[in-house]
């Protein structure tokens, strides 16, 4: 899978090396392999959990949607998107966050998609500074729900994004 991943230096701004998750999707065999690897990683992480530790998958716009849907279908549980502010209809909960290349961002989740009985598995493509993933944790908790774990395909360890998470060991990479 790693062999088909493209990295673009200085994109979207100088000093940022952009890891292009979409380049995997151009290769069906590698995409299928990634799907299998992710399912296996989740199963392994929760092997000793007993009852299902999560009852929904939350995907972060947009690259978290692809594997989020795969996991949702595999486990037969709902998929819930987190999108940039202003993209979701209805009543939403909002949180602000920063990334390695943008200081001011906001994202939302639809309030009626999540409740206090929800136990979420959050998925995104990349953990860099931790701002986006931390925002997702905060949104889930604002809605009265719990985060069972998070999953990322790639992690840029040198940026220490795990340190922003309340429970760094809950992040599957």
Automatic annotation (TrEMBL):
The keyword Transferase applies. Transmembrane segments: none annotated. It comes from the Eukaryota. It is found in: Cytoplasm. One of its GO terms (molecular function) is adenine phosphoribosyltransferase activity. Residues 34-154 form the Phosphoribosyltransferase domain. GO terms for biological process: adenine salvage; AMP salvage; purine ribonucleoside salvage. Keywords: Cytoplasm, Glycosyltransferase, Purine salvage, Transferase. One of its GO terms (cellular component) is cytoplasm. It is an enzyme of class 2 (transferase). It catalyses: AMP + diphosphate = 5-phospho-alpha-D-ribose 1-diphosphate + adenine. Its main location: cytoplasm. InterPro entries: PRTase-like, PRTase_dom, UPRTase/APRTase. Pfam families: Pribosyltran. Pathway: Purine metabolism; AMP biosynthesis via salvage pathway; AMP from adenine: step 1/1. Its EC number is 2.4.2.7. Belongs to the purine/pyrimidine phosphoribosyltransferase family. Homodimer. Catalyzes a salvage reaction resulting in the formation of AMP, that is energically less costly than de novo synthesis. This is adenine phosphoribosyltransferase.
């Amino acid at each position: 899978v790693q062999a088909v991943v493209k990295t673009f230096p200085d994109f979207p701004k100088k000093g940022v090396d952009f890891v292009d998750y979409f380049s995997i999707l151009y290769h069906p065999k590698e995409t299928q392999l990634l799907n299998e690897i992710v399912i296996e990683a989740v199963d392994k992480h929760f092997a000793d959990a007993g009852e299902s530790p999560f009852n929904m998958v939350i995907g972060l716009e947009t690259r978290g949607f692809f594997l989020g849907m795969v996991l949702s279908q595999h486990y037969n549980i709902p998929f819930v998107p987190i999108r940039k502010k202003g993209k979701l209809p209805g009543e939403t909960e909002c949180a602000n966050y920063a990334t390695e290349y943008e200081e001011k961002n906001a994202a939302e989740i639809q309030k009626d998609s999540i409740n206090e009985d929800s136990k979420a598995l959050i998925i995104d493509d990349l953990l860099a500074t931790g701002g986006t993933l931390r925002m997702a944790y905060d949104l889930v908790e604002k809605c009265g729900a719990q985060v069972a774990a998070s999953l990322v395909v790639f992690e840029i360890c040198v940026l220490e994004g795990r340190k922003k998470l309340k429970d760094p060991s809950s992040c599957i990479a």
